[in-house]
Amino acid sequence: MVTAPEIPEVPEMASTPEVKEKPLWREVLEVVVIAVVLALVIRFFVVEPFYIPSESMLPTLEVNDRIIVSKVNYYFTSPERGEILVFKYPLDLSQNFVKRLIAVGGETVELKNSVLYINGEAVPEDYLPPDLRYSNFGPVEVPEGHFFMMGDNRNSSSDSRTWGYVDEELLIGRAMLIIWPFDRFGVVK
User: Fold this and answer.
1) CB–CB of 35/105 below 8 Å?
2) Annotated catalytic residue: which of 15, 54, 88, 99?
3) Is 9 a residue whose pLDDT tops 90?
4) Would you call 11 exposed, middle or buried from its count of C-beta atoms within 10 A (0-12, 13-18, 19+)?
5) Closest CA to 96 of 49, 130, 35
6) 88 given a catalytic annotation
7) What are the contacts of 80-85 at 24+ separation with CB within 8 A?
8) Catalytic pick from 56, 71, 157, 160?
């Protein structure tokens, strides 16, 4: 006689708990809160938009240009001569200025016959118009922990020649991109 094979008993499956769906308003609120937090983190620690209010950086930056400033570059490196920086104006910390870094602490700056000299050596400034003429200045030594900043439009720029040095603690970041107007979109040089 042939007997049927025994069928093993299947253990009872544990019931899966019901997943309760969140109301739509709560999901939307969570997404909005996350978006706002991310936007604030990016704006305060990564990049920030600025606009150019004056002619002091012509021809590099024009009045009403909108730029993006990187705030993270200088967590890892130091600013270098020739970079365009945004910083708190030393005489009124509620204002932000945009200028080109000319010299760092320990360097001597002199302008003579419309030529920039750092530590007695002429420094080429390819970003300036070739026919630009401006007044003599210096020599002055930049204190340690400070920057000497100048606008590219040397004859129409309030800069370190008139209000002094910028403490490195006042640095906000490096100008990276022109984002407006669209026809000027590009990397800031």
Assistant:
1) no
2) 99
3) no
4) exposed
5) 49
6) no
7) 81/118, 81/123, 82/127, 83/174, 83/175, 84/57, 84/60, 84/174, 84/175, 84/188, 85/147, 85/149, 85/171, 85/172, 85/173, 85/174, 85/175
8) 56
For tokens 């007044």, name the residue. 135
Give the CA distances from residue 166 to residues 13, 55, 99, 138, in Å, rounded to whole numbers and listed in that order: 71, 20, 11, 17
Judge whether 78 counts as a catalytic residue.
Answer: no
Structural domains in the chain, CATH included, are 49-187 (2.10.109.10)
> How would you classify residue 186: left for phi > 0, otherwise alpha for psi between -120 and 50, otherwise beta?
left
The dihedrals phi and psi of 169, each to the nearest 5 degrees, come to: -70, -20
Cα–Cα distance for residue pair 25/7, rounded to 1 Å: 51
H helices of 6-72, where? 24-45
CA 30 to centroid of chain Cα atoms: 29
In this predicted model, what pLDDT tens digit does every residue of 51-97 receive, in sequence order? 899 999 999 999 999 999 988 877 788 899 999 999 999 999 999 99
d(CA 47, CA 86): 12
* Cα 19 → chain centroid: 45
Nearest to 96 by CA among 175, 176, 15: 175
